[in-house]
Amino acid sequence: MEDCIQTVPIKDAVLVFSGQKSTQVEEPDPQVDLCLGASGPALVGEVFLVPVTLVSKGHDVYSGELKINLVDVKGGGLFSPRDSEPYSMDSHHVQLLGISGPEGEDDSQLDSDNIKKIQQSFGLISVPFIKNGDSWSCRLEIKWHRPKPIMLYVSLGYTPNSGSGESNAQTVHVHKNLQIEGTTAIVINHHYLMPFRRDPLLLTKNKQTSDSEQNKQASESDQPESLPSNQKTVLIVSAKNCTEVPLRLKSLSVEEEDGVERTCSIQHGSEELSKPALLVPGEEFKKVFSVSSNVNISKLRLGTVCLRWRRDLGVDEKSASTTTLSSWVVTKQKLPDKNVELPPLIVSMECPPYAILGDPFTYCIRILNQTQLLQEIKYSLADAQSFVLCGYHNDTVYVLPKSEHIVSYKLVPLASGMQQLPRFSMTSARYSAAYQPSNSSNSVFVFPSKPHFKTAGSTNFRVEESVGNE
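and the corresponding structure tokens:
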């Protein structure tokens, strides 16, 4: 250390003003550009391609090696020994699947001296000789199993001079990094619906409702839900695009699990779409299935929802090449098992699809007793401001075993538009269970005059749709 300023020209300004006597040995400045490109965020499940391009702008590239490293942005590793992936053979959150060279080049065309090593989060590949002014490119194939941001590090090491056999030939390094966000592409949800205006009286559901009223802290969503046995139930499966890029949907099906027998029949469970549907960001795609449960079962096993999709590139699929379009990604989600019970009573409401202002119509309520016991039913029908009704408002009836009781009312609409029907409610004395229909099934649209519907094939011919056919 000397009390003077180093006058030897070196690049590091800190060393210049530190007063140290030093000699800085540097490698030549790289004259090769290393470019990393990625189109949008990576989606969980798909094979995400990252183009890597090398452009020589002054150096001839000899003995080049490309090193790839995947590092977790938030620290830690990309491997979780506690959480195993259900649809992958390993428990890596992000995998480096492979490195593909330019189009038309495969592994058989590579020399024996070339190196190509691929691991879960590390890759090494040899770069061929690149003349000054030429370029070379490859693509990294990375797959996300879980939403996770990663940092991609790519390092190029090459010799700017021709290999003259010198073991101490100086190597030039180029480093680039790129942060890539891995996001969930599609969120799958499902829910069940009973047939329209046909509701079974489920005792477990009625018990859960009474328990929730007594205990405000217990939510109904945490309670197990039961489905009626020997009845058709509507299953609606929805898939929502949660990304910022459009997606293409090929099929949405419900398939059996491996080694597990399905205990119900599902209509339209494995049908593919006639044309891949476009799903823009934030849009939700829904498909309706009809579920018929078998007799003498206590638990319903529906299977697994299988969704086939891929990223939409905005090109025509017929004209695009197979290398341009990515392969279809399969996303699976198991449907939870549902408890099945036999409903003792089934209430069906029969009403025209629409009503006409001032024209009376019949409103029928059918109470079906599926048990071997005599059922005492207390029912009531509340008044509605939009209708004038004729019939008993409150009464007690006895429904015989394995039989049906019909309650009929005559209604006259007094207002047009969507109107709420007089609300029907009943109570079973034997089970202390109450029934009340939902608002959606208890409404009807009232036209101010008799409507006329046009056929799809002709605009001049009008067909009057009768209420009885509906």
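(Above: one complete record from the training split.) Residues 81-90, 106-113, 212-224, 458-470 have pLDDT under 50 and may be disordered.
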